[in-house]
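Observation: inputs received (chain + flavin-adenine dinucleotide).
Thought: call the complex predictor directly.
Action: predict_structure
Action Input:
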Amino acid sequence: MSYMADATEWCVLLRVPSLWRVLVPAVESDSDAWLVSDEKKNTVFSGLMGDGASVITHHRTLYKVHQRVVTKYNHGRVILAGDAAHLNNPLGGFGMNSGIHDVWNLTDKLCAILQDGADPAPLLDRYDRQRRTVMQEFVQAQSIRNKQDLEIGDDESRRRRQENLEVLMTNDEKRRAYLLTQSMVSSRVREAEIA
Ligand SMILES: Cc1cc2nc3c(=O)[nH]c(=O)nc-3n(C[C@H](O)[C@H](O)[C@H](O)COP(=O)(O)OP(=O)(O)OC[C@H]3O[C@@H](n4cnc5c(N)ncnc54)[C@H](O)[C@@H]3O)c2cc1C
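Observation:
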């Protein structure tokens, strides 16, 4: 993922095997029709590469950004996981991954309950404590930081962020810690610590 920023706008350029995904912010007052129009597409790509009209897009869509975690993951026989339990800014790619982590955590507990006859309440309460804690401490916090990083407007803050990234390039220990966090491995370690 790479970022482009100027004083007024940022965008995310994400290269996937067959195409580029381009994410641009929208203001609330813009109509949906304008946001997915050819005119808007041409404006966005002209800003990026000069001739926006020559760019072919295969799909244009809108989404709203939420930052939410439920107050409890388990309610009697109803157990929440994935987007039903938490929503966050897609920047960072944590949404689906954290849903998979929910279910990975939950299946061990469901096996203990359904196959081995364990008492459900303490296990499901532990599921709630573990997953809700890491969602709040890690996923929500990190996705907010990722968004703030993109919105950096002044030169001084941008220079500091660039310096921090350069430190990661040269410092093995810091880079390892950063990658463990971004790949969500640290969040799995953290949840295992929660009784
Ligand atoms: C633009 C964008 C980019 C993203 N990029 C990434 C990324 O790079 N990496 C990442 O990890 N995550 C990413 N995400 C987040 C990811 O898409 C979601 O976190 C993930 O799809 C959530 O999966 P889910 O199964 O929990 O919920 P959903 O995908 O919402 O699935 C819920 C399903 O339940 C069905 N349903 C709803 N109500 C009922 C009902 N009453 N009865 C039966 N079925 C019902 C719905 O139709 C739907 O099929 C992105 C999200 C967006 C918006």
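Thought: report the result.
Final Answer: The chain is about 55% helix and 10% strand. The beta strands are 2-5, 10-16, 19-23, 68-69, 74-75, 78-79, 86-87.
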